[in-house]
């Protein structure tokens, strides 16, 4: 992930960078012990970037991926990184604490996006669009180490 921003118009953008899986496994060390050997995933000169754009985002919940639990109570029909969600604890919270579902006349959909660094839940009108960013990924951004098992 390269960043996210919500504009005053309600548009919410998440910029994602393509990670390239390395060819050789390397040891992953946590708390001074080797967990296992994994493939490093890095942003390279050939990495692409995309913007995931929600034109009318009404509410956004985001947190560091390290804090992810199974307590989000998500119901979704697919298991992709960007998925439409039909029920969640975030939706219940937004319904109980805001007037979004009372005042927005357009149908509201919920979306869940998991990245290597952040988790996003978005309540929005309409479907997100995905647009490739000219020039590819920004290699100047400091990134956390990311690993692939397969």
Provide a descriptive summary of the structure in words.
- This protein is mainly beta.
- The protein has one domain (3-148).
- The chain contains two helices and 13 strands.
- The protein has helices at residues 89-97, 100-103; strands spanning 3-6, 12-17, 20-21, 26-30, 33-42, 49-54, 56-64, 75-76, 82-87, 108-114, 118-125, 129-132, 146-148.
- A five-stranded antiparallel beta sheet has the order 7-11-10-9-8.
- A hairpin with a 5-residue loop joins strand 1 (3-6) and strand 2.
- It is globular, with a radius of gyration of 17 Å.
- The two termini are 21 Å apart.
- The model has no long low-confidence stretch (mean pLDDT 91).
Q: What is the CA-CA span between the terminal residues?
A: 21 Å
Envelope shape: globular
Q: Main sheet, how many strands, which sense, barrel?
A: 5 strands, antiparallel
Number of domains: 1
Structural class assignment: mainly beta
Unreliable runs: none
Please give the radius of gyration in angstroms: 17 Å
What's the count of strands? 13
What is the arithmetic mean of pLDDT? 91
Please give the order of strands in the largest beta sheet. 7-11-10-9-8
* Order of H and E elements: EEEEEEEEEHHEEEE
